[in-house]
Amino acid sequence: MNYESPNHFLKSGQTALAKGPIALIFAEDGIELDSTVRHHLKLGFKSVLVFMPQDLALDPELADHVHRITMKCSPRTVVFETINRFIQAAPGLWMYYCYNAEYLFYPFSETRSVGEMLAFHSEERRNAMLSYVIDLYADDLCTYPNGVAPDQALFDSTDYYAHTRHDPSGQPLDRQVNISGGLRWRYEEHVPYERRRIDRIALFKSQKGLVLRPDHTFNEPEYNTYSCPWHHNMTAAICSFRAAKALKTNAGSTFDIPSFRWRNSVPFEWQSRQLLDLGLIESGQWF
Question: Which domains does the chain have, with CATH numbers?
Fold first, then answer.
């Protein structure tokens, strides 16, 4: 189904919001848009909503399986405003959001649906799941000058750091951390300070009054925690070419980066087991 705008969808496409989990995919450009949509359809989302400009193309084979909503995803605040509108329009649903060239992985995601995973997470009285944005990048920037190459993707296997998050008065926040690492850490001189974190609450249960803020945190403190007080919970990863794409298409950084490869680069295997083995996602009590 095609919709002229988010307003049009919210007036006539409400049946797609009847049951979750739903995926909200925001297309900043057409790079790997088809593969992003295909990946999330395979995970078993009940509805996949793709927000994209009118001039972008989507594989006709995918078009019948998604809800295409015409929208320009810039400036970046438009994305957060749109997510918040959908939160209020459909309270009580599990939602997920990402951008094109981003791919969700959670423990055992090859054999278990996202609905199964969230059902277990809900049983643990959790309404949100911490995700880490793991930067993917092309091995050969001469062949792939925009930094995007799914068939030759690398990522950093180490050097991820967690820092206790503090409130404005300097007091530590319970079970909240700021995570750094990946390309945003290695090339921090080219990344604005407020964009360097790689933690994102990408999976969450909507509720009235819930607001997603532009720093990827919520106005409800418990949504921003990495686990409940009594044991570790599952975490997920969003494996993303977004940072590589930005660094190589920005004139201020592209000439400073002849290669993203370094001593800790390893090939990405497109398997959740690799992320589990490296400690980049956790299975918690789910086996």
Answer: 1-100 (3.40.50), 103-199+207-287 (no CATH)
Residue type for 199, please? D
- 76 neighbors 66 (Cβ within 8 angstroms): no
Distance CA 205, CA 119 (A): 11
Distance CA 190, CA 33 (A): 25
- Residue 247 and residue 36: Cα distance in Å, rounded? 20
Answer for the pair 198, 132: CB distance below 8 angstroms, yes or no.
Answer: yes
| Mean pLDDT on 84-94 | 97
For residue 176, what are the CA distances in angstroms to 172, 179, 212, 217?
8, 10, 16, 10
> What pLDDT digit, counting tens, does each position of 182-195 carry?
999 999 999 988 88
Q: Alpha helices of the chain — where are they, by DSSP H?
A: 6-12, 33-42, 60-63, 77-89, 114-123, 182-186, 242-249, 272-277
Instruction: Give CA–CA dist 144/32, Å, rounded.
Output: 13
Measure the CA dihedral 133/172/209/66, to 10°.
10
pLDDT in tens, 38-54: 999 999 999 999 999 99
Residue 33 binned pLDDT confidence (cut-offs 50, 70, 90): very high
Backbone angles phi, psi at 245, to 5 degrees: -60, -45
- Rounded CA gap, 49 and 39, in Å? 13
Write down the pTM of the prediction: 0.96
CA distance to 106, 231, 258, per residue, from 96 (Å): 13, 24, 34
DSSP result, 205-253: E--TT--B-TTS-BSSGGGG-SS-SSS----EEEEESHHHHHHHH-TTT
Tokens of 216: 């990827």
Strand partners, 3: 69
